[in-house]
Structure formats: structure tokens, C-alpha cells
Design brief:
10 helices, about 20% strand, binds NADP nicotinamide-adenine-dinucleotide phosphate, Rossmann fold, alpha/beta, three-stranded antiparallel beta sheet
């Protein structure tokens, strides 16, 4: 989704621009002073915001951005999971450290980030209420560890969450949809709950009157970007280590729903914007 925001101008970028902030591949050549890698190594990267360029068959890249792909993880899975997995790690470990006693609410529970986030929270032991946009995604959300799944095309989200939590509401909402769901997400929170607005799939959330937070129960609101949490190398490495370990041991299943040739990047964007995709979408040079 992030690439579509940049294409549409929602996230700032300067032209000329090669899109794409994440990719996996094989090292073909190395500068003489690089000792940590060798030709033929499989690597994956996620670039800091504002430094795209991944929609390419070959690129020159600084070695500091590269991570070795562990044995047991394919290039496709590495490409599909690094940015989304680090986002999920940040959200469940740092932005709101999920506990086994929590009931949490996650939008786009069958999507790329959502599917990893739900599995991670389920792995921690939380009860996960997933929200999806159509009946076709309910099974996928359940496979991601959601014990309850709300189909927002058919069900009233706030009433259903209230019913599922004995009227209490949830301590945290992970909302990647943005504009269209912001208000109802606040209404799903219990007093002093945390609203995590981490995406803009339906558009950017308009300015908020902070008095609303008081009126709805002294709520907390945050708009995180995972790189800000991972700026210290040891934290970044911890997150990557946990992510790859969960994937290698099969406790985290990364589902690739669609694969497009790189030349069909426009169709891949259209698919992402169609809301029909399940799991991650990757481009193959
Ligand atoms: N803050 C961060 O650091 C960070 C980092 C990476 C990604 N993100 C955010 O995470 C979110 C998920 O990214 P993703 O790549 O994994 O995408 P995704 O969740 O696989 O796809 C977006 C999903 O959003 C829902 N949606 C509802 N209305 C939509 C609309 N008008 N257009 C498109 N989608 C719509 C759809 O799910 P349903 O049909 O189930 O509602 C759709 O499948 C994005 O909002 C992205 O910006 C944030």
C-alpha cells in the first residue's frame, strides 16, 4: 500500500522516482572494501522513508542497508515479509506491547501487515478481533489467529466489538484504514485505551479535535512510523531476528496472495487499491 501512497502524492517524494522501498535479491558485485558479504549472497532490505528504488532488476546499494536472508527463508518470503513484519513487530512489541490477557482489534486482518500482526498477537496469547472488508476474507483472518472476525460490509463494528467485550471496549485498536474508520475505532476503545492509526488505506485522517479524546474516555492517540522505533541498530537487529526466527520455525506464516511481473507494477497497484488482495503482493523482475 505504501507505494501507492507515494505514487498518489499522499507521501512526499521528489521526481524522478523509481518506486519501491523493499526488495530481496542476490549480490552480483561488491566494492573492494566490503567484507561482510560475498558475491552470490541472498539479501533483503527495507529502505528508510524517502529513499525508494526497489522497482528495478539491478541496483547499486550501500551494504549497510542489506540483511542476509537466512537459510530456510525464500527470497519471495523475505521480500514479502521484511517491511510488513518489522511494522507488525513495532506495533505489537513497542507501540502497544500486547499481553496475553489482552483483547485487541485489528483492521485489514487478512492483509499484508494485518495478517502478520494478527498472527504475532495470537502467538503472544492475545485474543484478536479482526476486521475485514468482505466475507471472502473471513477464513484468512481466522487462519491468522483471529478468534472473532467482523465483516465490516455486513456488521456494525462498534456494536459488535462492544458485544464481544461485555460493553467494555478494547484497550487498543490497530487501524490501518485511516479516514473512514477513525471515529468508529475511537468508539471501540475502553476508557484510557490507545488508538493506533498506522495507515491511510481509505485516505488520511483529517485534523482531530483533541477534546474528542477526553469525551470518548481519556483516550490516547498515536500515529506511528516503524522506522522511528527501529532507529537504534540493536533494536532493528532484535526485530529482524525475532521476525526471521518466527518465520523459520513456522510460527509465522507469510502468505503471498498475488505475484506480478515487475513490468505489471501498475496492475499490482490497482490490485492493492481494489481491496481484493489477501496477504502480501510481490513484484518479480
Ligand atoms: N506506519 C507504518 O510504519 C507502516 C508501515 C507499513 C505499512 N503501513 C500501513 O499498513 C497498512 C497495510 O499495508 P499493506 O501493504 O499490508 O496493505 P493491505 O493491508 O494488504 O491492503 C490494504 C487493505 O486495506 C483495506 N482497505 C479498506 N479500504 C481500502 C481502500 N479504499 N483502498 C485500499 N485498501 C483498503 C483492505 O482490507 P479489507 O478489505 O479487509 O478492509 C485492503 O486489503 C497500510 O495502510 C500501510 O500504509 C504502515
Amino acid at each position: 500500500m505504501v507505494d501507492t501512497y507515494i505514487r498518489k502524492g499522499l507521501y512526499a517524494a521528489s521526481l524522478p522516482l523509481i518506486p519501491g522501498g523493499e526488495a530481496a535479491g542476490t549480490i552480483e558485485e561488491l566494492a573492494a572494501d566490503i567484507k561482510d558479504f560475498k558475491v552470490g549472497d541472498r539479501v533483503v532490505y527495507v529502505m528508510p522513508p524517502g529513499t525508494p528504488g526497489a522497482y528495478s532488476e539491478r541496483r547499486v546499494i550501500e551494504a549497510r542497508h542489506l540483511l542476509p536472508i537466512p537459510d530456510g527463508i525464500s527470497d519471495d518470503i523475505a521480500a514479502a515479509s521484511l517491511l510488513k513484519g518489522l511494522t507488525a513487530w513495532t506495533l505489537v512489541r513497542k507501540t502497544y506491547p500486547v499481553k496475553s490477557c489482552d483483547t485487541i482489534m485489528v483492521y485489514a486482518a487478512a492483509g499484508g501487515v494485518g495478517s502478520i500482526l494478527c498472527q504475532w498477537a495470537h502467538h503472544i496469547g492475545a485474543r484478536v478481533i479482526g476486521v475485514v472488508g468482505s466475507a471472502a476474507k473471513i477464513l484468512s483472518a481466522r487462519q491468522n489467529g483471529c478468534t472473532e472476525v467482523i465483516d465490516r460490509s455486513q456488521q456494525d463494528i462498534v456494536a459488535t466489538v462492544r458485544k464481544l467485550t461485555d460493553g467494555q471496549g478494547v484497550p487498543v485498536v490497530y487501524d490501518s484504514l485511516g479516514k473512514d474508520t477513525f471515529e468508529q475505532s475511537l468508539d471501540c476503545l475502553r476508557p484510557t485505551g490507545l488508538m493506533i492509526s498506522y495507515g491511510n488505506a481509505t485516505g488520511a485522517v483529517p485534523p482531530v479535535n483533541i477534546l474528542t479524546l477526553m469525551q470518548k474516555g481519556s483516550l490516547f492517540l498515536t500515529r506511528p512510523q516503524f522506522f522511528h522505533y527501529l532507529r537504534q541498530p540493536e533494536v532493528f537487529q532484535q526485530a529482524v531476528g525475532e521476525l526471521f526466527e518466527l518465520i523459520k520455525t513456522g510460527r509465522l506464516r507469510v502468505h503471498i496472495g498475488r505475484r506480478f511481473p515487475l513490468r505489471e507494477a501498475a496492475q499490482a497497484h490497482a490490485a492493492a487499491e481494489s481491496t481484493l488482495t489477501i496477504g502480501s503482493t510481490i513484484l518479480l523482475p
